[in-house]
Write a structure and sequence with these properties.
This protein has eight helices and seven strands; from the N terminus they run αβααβββααβαβαβα. It is α+β, with helices and mostly antiparallel strands. A seven-stranded mixed β-sheet has the order 1-2-3-4-5-7-6, with helices on both faces. The longest helix is centred in the middle third of the chain and has 14 residues, at 130-143. Bound molecules: coenzyme A (COA). Coenzyme A binds at residues 19, 44-46, 49, 119-121, 126-132, 158, 160-161, 163-164, 166-167, 170.
């Protein structure tokens, strides 16, 4: 029997998998970025995210093992990219969230997760469901230890830009506790930390 809390969580998280795509997601091709590769003319409308890919910044991240970038192709064109690394979220940021309060009683400082350092879709390809397909793919990586190796991973973590808050909310992400630091980030940088609890996918699987 599903209680009210889990029922609402299931509805929220199921949204990640229900969408009307105007592309064929089986035709998306994922390629790890290699160091000497050059991508030109990528434009997602956010200068910082364009520059990351159009300059050698992406290469520096790759070389120094600070972030692994994956290029996403559709019909031979780079339509998007994402950059991932390992991260963790301090327990105080989530312990007021249902499902985490018990963990707050354990002697742990951080909840392990995958950090989505960057995620962007080219202007021409936005609003066709590609962004959400990428979140699905990243979530399945973290959820499935066969893909991620024998490493525990509970969260997807993102430092979301204000303009993308609703995109992440629609994909099932939540804001962390609004600490003083979070308030200051929102005011000065227009970003907030958001997370997706991969344990909810486990729960979804168990009731299918
Ligand atoms: C934000 C971004 C990644 C979304 O990717 P996308 O492929 O355009 O999004 P999708 O088509 O998969 O949209 C999925 C859902 O989110 C909604 N959505 C997408 N972008 C949104 C936004 N900026 N604000 C509110 N809702 C948004 C869509 O309407 C859709 O909702 P629906 O399921 O009700 O139809 C993309 O628009 C982008 O690269 N923007 C510029 C860079 C950026 O802001 N990156 C995020 C950095 S944190």
């Amino acid at each position: 029997m599903i209680n009210a809390f889990f029922a609402s969580e299931v509805v929220r998280v199921s949204r990640l998998f229900s969408q009307d795509l105007s592309i064929d997601p089986t035709k998306l091709i994922f390629q790890p970025f290699w160091e000497t590769q050059r991508v030109k003319n990528f434009d997602c409308g956010v200068i910082e995210l364009n520059d990351f890919l159009n300059t050698d910044e992406v290469e520096q991240y790759q070389k120094n093992k600070l972030g692994q970038t994956t290029l996403v192709y559709y019909e031979g064109e780079v339509v998007g990219y994402y950059t991932l690394s390992n991260d963790g979220l301090r327990i105080d940021y989530v312990k007021t969230t249902k499902g985490f309060s018990k963990l707050g009683e354990m002697r742990i400082n951080q909840i392990p997760g995958i950090k989505i350092g960057r995620l962007a879709i080219d202007n021409k390809w936005q609003a066709r469901g590609i962004g959400r397909s990428l979140i699905q793919r990243i979530a399945m990586k973290g959820f499935d230890t066969d893909h991620y190796g024998d490493v525990a991973c509970r969260l997807l973590i993102v430092e979301a830009k204000e303009q993308a808050f609703n995109f992440y909310k629609k994909a099932g992400f939540q804001f962390t506790y609004k600490s003083r630091k979070e308030k200051s980030k929102l005011k000065h940088r227009g970003t907030r930390t958001m997370f997706f609890d991969l344990w909810e996918l486990d729960y979804l699987k168990s009731i299918r």
